[in-house]
Amino acid sequence: MGVLSELEPKEVFQYFEDLCGIPHGSYHEAELSDYCVAFAKEHHLEVIQDELKNVIIIKPATAGYEQVPTLILQGHLDMVCEKTEDCKIDFQTDGLELEVEGDYISAKGTTLGGDDGIAVAYALAILASDTLKHPRLEVVLTIAEEVGMEGAARIDLSSLQGKKLLNMDSENEGILLTSCAGGAGVSAVLPIARAEKTGILYEIHLDHLTGGHSGVEIDKGRANANVLMGRILLSCRKQLPYDLVDINGGLKDNAIPRSCVARILIAPGSEKKLEEVIERESKNVCHEYRNADPAMSLQAVKCTATQLQALEETDKTTLLMLMNALPNGIQTMSLNIEGLVETSLNMGILKTEETSVTMSYAVRSSVSTAREALTEKMQAIIEYMGASFTIAGVYPGWAFKEDSKLREDMITVYEKMYGNKPKIEAVHAGVECGLLSDKIEGLDCISIGPDMKNIHTAQEQLCISSAKRVWEYIVQVIAYK
Fold first, then answer.
1. How far apart are the first and last CA of the chain?
2. Active-site residue list
3. What is the signed CA dihedral for 458, 319, 301, 274, rounded to 10 degrees?
4. Looking at 172-296, which runs of residues are DSSP E strands?
5. What is the DSSP string of 124-171?
6. DSSP state of 231
7. Which of 135, 149, 336, 362 is the most exposed place for a label (fewest CB within 10 A)?
8. pTM score, two decimals?
9. DSSP 70
């Protein structure tokens, strides 16, 4: 018996538990994609799977709905793979260990993948039903959404009939999302030279930060472990000499990094001084972020006297200057929508290799010219410092549609069910509606989803009762005519 077998609606949580047992991190969605294809064939539904492993499943209209306009249901197959330091799960081979506590589902030590597994579960449950009423349904399940929306960018939708699209990739019940930010991935690669250095090896560990989604949680004031480590190392440099061996933090450019580790060499006899400096820095940063990151920890762990290849002094200096010069976090707030972040960026990955250090950023903005200005500013700083600049995965924002019939219908259904209107909002996070709207002329999109907490972190939770209510709402939306 499954962990979720007693939860309602049973059909939704059955599929959700099935897919949680299938590894499906970004670029590793093939098995889940094949599962969806096998599902479609088992239920005698038309299915298309492209070479990328995007999947389209089509179900004919039920009796009486043949003349109702086709509705597209859409979500993504991949999940962000984050885990706690002590978690042994291999995301490429292992399923998730689900847990239920009260009204929430989580995964032991890892992200849950409710973003966007719940959309896939909703879609499969609808497609499997013999009792739900609906028009022709075209279900679009994309790959690699979390790493630049590559599936949505390259999927062929020319065979679809639908002009209305319900995206199920949001995390707040009772809110109809009607527009979102566009974005891009930016990388700075700094070439480094190394020389053999001798000293006492210390590992500087900055961990137990809250982290989170770089769009949804960028306004929560949470520390970025990579950026903060750059600040700490710059401060240390002013107080005692050291050689930098390497520095690494973060796994995804669109997740605020929760930890970062730097390895340094110091001269024998400097141990007490370093430990005092780190203790002082710890008090400072933990106090600054006491509300947003209450569990933050900064420690200097002494290893042993050793010889290692460390960065040349000039390259170490350049790296620290580059890390501290590049912007991070919120850049501007919208002047049109109160509380909406307009432009931001997040250094999600910091990785040291033998001959280079790479910093990878997710850049977001609801104003394309503002995004372009920010990336040009980054390029100027990066190239001035002697690093190489690359930009990739540029995706458009999703503009608000003034005359949305789908929005009007969904408001009507919501009012009938709950006696009040849903909230109409924009979001700083990216959803695939912008890319898909570029592929289907006149596409009318709305994004919804159940309550989820701490997505893109190992503390991710999906609210059970909210998932049930959103399911009931979707059932009424697809039946509305």
1. 39
2. 78, 145
3. -140
4. 175-180, 182-191, 194-207, 212-213, 243-249, 255-256, 260-266
5. HHHHH-SS---S-EEEEEES-GGGT-HHHHH---TT----EEEE----
6. H
7. 336
8. 0.79
9. P
